[in-house]
Design a protein that fits this description.
The protein is globular. It has about 280 residues and is mostly helical. Helices cover about 70% and strands about 0% of the residues.
């Protein structure tokens, strides 16, 4: 199986997973659990599988956020809502959002969720904390909740591998954001807004990348583009392994594509994830 298939799968599992951040049902579930505001809801709900961990753990595993943004929400989140209570509402709310955005999701989930679970169980969790924490959660009996949970696990599997590769290349979370923006994928203002960095932070990181020959006057150099291409190719290679357990992974992709297109309407484009709309 060509490793680029893993990128195709990312383009469909990411929107299905990401309703948990953008859909009104999911924001309301976080508020009902006791979390205060969007960012506490984001860090608390995404981090809940790890348990009541420190701000430093969230910062390290989520990677691209300003430390102050994380520390405004964590560990206070655990005073308002336990990880267990957050998890109880998380997949239910995501399933309700998916049912709203794509009424045919039930039939898709009945066929796709067992295949996604097979891929999850075939994946190696070594060095992948967010994936491991999600994989160890019980798979819900509800098929749409199971679909969301398994796509979430596979999304975090890819993300953990990507963070490891960025770190191995000596890129900080901020520098990784700057490099993405220098490629013209996402405007800097989107990162200021979503990741908490200031223009001054951004300028310092840009200068750091310029000293490495990766950025010149705010745009990626040939070396910067080559580095990003290598990282993305290797990310695909690492993310492809779980799908090798499946007999017909391409049919799984095709079955998820219509639901992913519908779920993508809950997301902003361009987005700091760098995700394009599903083709």
């Amino acid at each position: 199986m060509d490793a680029t298939f893993a990128r195709d799968m990312w383009k469909v599992i990411e929107p299905l997973h990401a309703v948990t951040y953008f859909a009104e049902e999911c924001r309301a579930a976080n508020a009902e659990a006791g979390l205060k505001g969007f960012w506490m809801g984001y860090f608390g709900s995404r981090g809940a599988p790890l348990g009541a961990v420190s701000a430093g753990t969230i910062q390290a595993t989520f990677f691209g956020f300003h430390p102050a943004r994380v520390r405004r929400a964590i560990p206070d989140a655990w005073k308002f809502a336990s990880p267990e209570s957050i998890l109880r509402g998380r997949s239910d709310a995501a399933a309700r959002a998916l049912r709203r955005t794509f009424p045919g999701i039930e039939d898709v989930a009945l066929k796709a969720a067992p295949l996604l679970e097979e891929a999850v169980m075939a994946a190696d969790a070594s060095g992948r904390p967010l994936f491991a924490a999600n994989r160890d959660l019980p798979v819900p009996e509800d098929p749409v909740e199971a679909l969301w949970q398994t796509t979430t696990s596979l999304r975090e599997h890819r993300g953990d591998g990507h963070v490891a590769l960025l770190t191995a290349e000596g890129l900080s979370g901020l520098e990784a954001n700057v490099l993405v923006s220098a490629l013209g994928t996402v405007p800097p203002e989107r990162f200021y807004e979503s990741r908490g960095w200031s223009p001054e932070d951004w300028s310092e990181a840009t200068e750091s990348l310029a000293r490495r020959g990766l950025v010149d006057r705010g745009e990626a150099t040939a070396a910067g583009r080559d580095l990003k291409t290598r990282i993305e190719q290797r990310t695909d290679e690492l993310a492809a392994a779980p799908y090798q357990a499946l007999t017909d992974p391409r049919s799984l992709y095709e079955s998820l594509l219509p639901a992913a297109r519908a779920a993508a309407n809950e997301m902003p484009f361009p987005n700091p994830i760098g995700l394009p709309r599903p083709a």
